[in-house]
Amino acid sequence: MAIDTVERFLTALDPHHREQVQRLSHEEQVKLADAWEAELRQDTDLDTLSELSPPAAESEAAARVAGKLLE
Question: Of 3, 28, 47, 60, which is the most buried if we count CB atoms within 10 A?
Fold first, then answer.
């Protein structure tokens, strides 16, 4: 069974941001996860990091999205 986007996004977040996102409604979590996927697709710097370490690229994109939208 594939992990859905929200679960993948939550996994990529650091513990502090994960707790913040988990307190949001499911709709808000989906919006953040969609923004995270867009960040992964659009940022060319993450492409290089993704080749070296996909989890690191996912974590970096998650931190960017959470930082912009939660703080």
Answer: 60
